[in-house]
Amino acid sequence: DSLSDSRAYLHSQFFILQEHPQSLLNLMKRKAKVKNSDTIR
């Protein structure tokens, strides 16, 4: 189930946020770039 997968992913991201806010920020920026390139295509 992709919904529960994404929920588990969000939970892991949340814990990373508590431990390493800066690295999560970088990860989100990278993901946003990927998302933007996907919409352009």
What keywords describe this structure?
41 residues; mainly alpha; 2 helices
Characterization of the model:
There is one protein chain. The protein is an all-alpha fold and 41 residues long. Helices cover 93% and strands 0% of the residues. It is flat and about 35 Å long. It starts with a helix and ends with a helix.
Number of helices: 2
End-to-end separation in angstroms reads: 27 Å
Global mean pLDDT: 78
Q: Domains counted in the coordinates: how many?
A: 1
Low-confidence stretches: none
Give the amount of beta strand, in percent: under 5%
Secondary-structure element order, N to C: HH
Overall SS class: mainly alpha
Basic shape: flat
CA radius of gyration:
12 Å
Extended strand count: 0
Helical amount among residues, as a percent range? over 70%
Largest sheet descriptor: none
Oligomer: single chain
Topology, element by element:
Blueprint: H1 2-19, H2 21-40
Briefly say what this structure is:
The chain has 41 residues and is mostly helical. 93% of the residues lie in helices and 0% in strands.
